[in-house]
Amino acid sequence: MDVYSLSYIRQLPDGNWASMFIGVYSSLKRLEEAQERLRRLRGFRDSPEGFRVQCYRMDEEYDDPGFFTPWLPPQPGLGTVLGEAIGVETVAAPFTVLLPRGKRLPASYSGVYSTNVVDQPAVTVNVVAGDPSPAGAARQPAQLVVSGLPAAQAGLLQIHLSLAADEQGAVSASARYAHTGAVLSTATGVVAVDRGGQPS
User: Fold this and answer.
1) C-alpha span between 189 and 143 (Å, rounded)
2) Which domains are seen in the chain, by residue range?
3) Measured at the alpha carbon of residue 154, what is the angle toward residues 150 and 156, in degrees to the nearest 5?
């Protein structure tokens, strides 16, 4: 059984992002009815492109379990850790940390992303490393480009992102359809690691 979640995201005048989880619906038709009602309300009607639709299949896991903090200080005896944070950047959101600085290696992350507009032909996910703060320096060690997407409502196509880093700082990323597992794009790069407090 598939269920559909509706959320909303928009950029504020100060450059920050605001997001809101709206609800979960038993059918796409019910979700579209709710979305149409909300489009007429103040705030939503100013930026109607901010709605996000996610389709989830019941009794399936879409993310790795666990909890992380934005930064973990290196600890004696911890081994090799990330010397810089790793995350992703899309048109819908700025640098989002997925593997924090100080994370013990090897490490991995997986999550589900979706399209932003109706009939979006492609999705680009930038793998970003560095300082996630607004004034911080960041670079792009890898990029995933998924093209040739079929016509669909914004947020309906589900793309599963996998990200992994090994003890040498080698990063691998892949994108595939969440429901079929078909690989859509792969990319590799290199990030800084910390061995006993000495970044390399």
Assistant:
1) 9
2) 2-57 (no CATH), 80-199 (2.60.34.10)
3) 70
Tens of pLDDT, residues 18-27: 677 888 888 8
For 37-67, what is each residue's pLDDT tens digit?
888 888 788 777 778 777 777 776 654 444 4
Helix/strand/coil for 132: coil
- Contact by Cβ (8 Å): 83, 101: yes
Residue 122 corresponds to which tokens in the numbers above?
Answer: 């492609």
Give the span between the Cα atoms of 65 and 121, in whole angstroms: 31
pTM beyond cutoff 0.90 = no
Distance of CA 7 to the CA centre of its chain: 15
Question: Closest Cα to residue 128, out of 186, 83, 86, 189?
Answer: 86
